[in-house]
Amino acid sequence: MNELIVHQVNITHYRLVELSKLADQAKPFYDWVEKQANESL
Known about the structure:
elongated, mainly alpha, single chain, 41 residues, 2 strands, two-stranded antiparallel ribbon
């Protein structure tokens, strides 16, 4: 496996790649939370 460097961190380990995919899936939720917070201001 080739090295995968993000922000000077080697995230080649496949578990970290899985975690980054999980974090990407959470983005719609955080976008919704941000929208709700902005609408309540």
